Amino acid sequence: MSKHSTTQKAAMTTESTPAPAVDPRLLVREQGLAGYLGEFRRKLRSGDLGSVPVVLGLVLIAAIFQGITGKFLTAGNISNITLYIAGPGLISVGIVFVLLLGEIDLSLGSVAGVSAAVSAVLSVQHGVNEVLAAVLAVLAALVIGALHGFFFAKIGVPAFVVTLAGLLGWSGLQGWVMGNTGTLNNPPNGFIAHLDNYFFDDVAAAYGLAAVAVAGYFVAAFLGARSRRAAGLAAKPLSEVLLRTALLAVLAFVAAYTLNQDRGLPLALVVFLGVVVVTDFVLRRTSYGRKVFAVGGGVEAARRAGINVAWVRISVFMISAGLAAVGGLFIASQSGFADKQLGSGNVLMNSIAAAVIGGTSLFGGRGKTWSALLGMLVIQSIVTGLDLQGISQSIQYMITGAVLLAAVVLDSVSRRTQKSAGRG
Questions:
Q1: Does the chain have fewer CB atoms within 10 Å around its N or its C terminus?
Q2: Which H helix or E strand runs over 65?
Q3: Where would I find the beta strands (DSSP E) of 69-185?
Q4: Does 403 score more than 70 pLDDT?
Q5: What pLDDT score was predicted for residue 422?
Q6: In which domain, by residue range, is 299 found?
Q7: CB contact at 8 A, 171 and 113
Q8: Residues near 16 by beta carbon (within 8 Å), at least 6 away in sequence
């Protein structure tokens, strides 16, 4: 074979061999700020909105109500908002888990109510230690969640029907547990009373929590980027990690300063944030969390991948019921008592709305527990702002309903756009 033909064949082989694919995220980071802006625009066009709408909504809500009332951004009002979001927010975190499966749990308001009733009756009427009574109430809720999950996962009853029956049944049990008493006040200065009314008044507490949050984020982001680079994957450069950490530091320390201008750091906020962080870690960093997303993305595919679908479903309903019980205890602490109406009204609807408004999809497979925090901030900010204006509760319901509808429409449009862009 001639040298010319050999060279020609080599050239043809080179031309026919495709160039290795380059991760677009690497190109974005090489282009600097312009690359990030371009990537942001691409995500918006493809429907990958993330938390952008809810963050912009929060800024807009705060600006409007501050301009109207002049009181919305005061330290006292901000502190009150952090208290009001804890109970429903904890319930909303549990709802996020259920929504990730593409299901719904309508019983969680009743579960919160019956758990608070069990705790109050045991501690007040039967002299059981308050902490033990609260633990027993949460354990009872876990059993309730397992029961819901069993009928759904093993018997095949739709989750909507199972939890609708639970909404009615556990509400009846709540009334039966309370008996003729109707209302039981929390023991003064007791465990339940402190849940929503205790503040760390030392300024070091709020600033210390802010410092821990910022340091924790930096360490997690830095180590995560290093491990991805070691595996040959796209990773955030150190400059990006530092920029994100700086932005978080500004937000965290401004929040700490604001809370310290009032009563200090609320215990309720610490618990709520702790639950959000832990559950976010579970969903994003553990095999169990990946299984939850897999089941929500496609049951049959998850089953063929060897995932125990029934167990994942049962465990998710247990988690949602357990968090509902904890949320019910915080609601009882905020009101000062447990009664037959606790958990009724708009508690369930606000908790579901918060998860959806915060960015968790109703169609399953997409969402974060941070959605519960962001969504509750939106709802409670609207309610608080309208309260400052003296707007009636009926108007508040209509506005909250409109915001929920807008969030669902945005979710639907986003999914459709992502499918059109080949990302769905």
A1: N
A2: helix 52-69
A3: 183-185
A4: yes
A5: 54
A6: 51-201+263-407
A7: yes
A8: none
Q: What's the pTM?
A: 0.87
Residue 310 CB partners (closer than 8 Å, separation 6+) = 153, 154
* Bridge partners (DSSP) listed for residue 183: 339
Q: Which residue has the tokens 């429907």?
A: 47
Structure tokens given for 414: 């986003």
13 is a domain residue: no
What residues contact residue 285 under an 8 Å CB cut-off, 6+ apart? Answer: none
Instruction: Give how many domains the chain has, as a whole number.
Output: 1
Asked if residue 218 lies in contact with residue 241, where contact means CB atoms within 8 angstroms, the answer is yes
CATH code at 393? 1.10.3470
For residue 221, being part of any structural domain is answered with: no
Can you tell me the mean pLDDT for 371-400? 88
What are the DSSP calls for 294-305, one per residue? Answer: HHHH-HHHHHHT
CB atoms within 10 A of CB 227: 11
**Average of pLDDT values for 396-420?**
74
List C-alpha distances in Å: 400 to 15, 85, 239, 377: 60, 15, 40, 12
In this prediction, residue 419 carries a pLDDT of 61
Distance CA 156, CA 167 (A): 19
pLDDT band at residue 407 using 50, 70 and 90 as cut-offs: confident
Considering Cα of 356, then 410, then 291, then 146, what sign does the dihedral take? positive
Q: What's the Rg (C-alpha) of the chain?
A: 25
Question: Cβ neighbours of residue 6 under 8 Å, at least 6 residues apart?
Answer: none
66-106 pLDDT per residue, tens? 999 899 999 999 999 999 999 999 999 999 999 999 999 99
How many Cβ atoms sit within 10 Å of the Cβ of residue 55? Answer: 14
Strand partners, 200: 265
Backbone angles phi, psi at 103, to 5 degrees: -120, -175
CB contact set of 334 (below 8 Å; sequence gap of 6+): 83, 84, 86, 87, 196, 197
- Note the pLDDT tens digit of each residue in 163-174: 999 999 999 999
Q: Strand 337-339 to strand 265-266: parallel, antiparallel, or no bridges (unpaired)?
A: unpaired
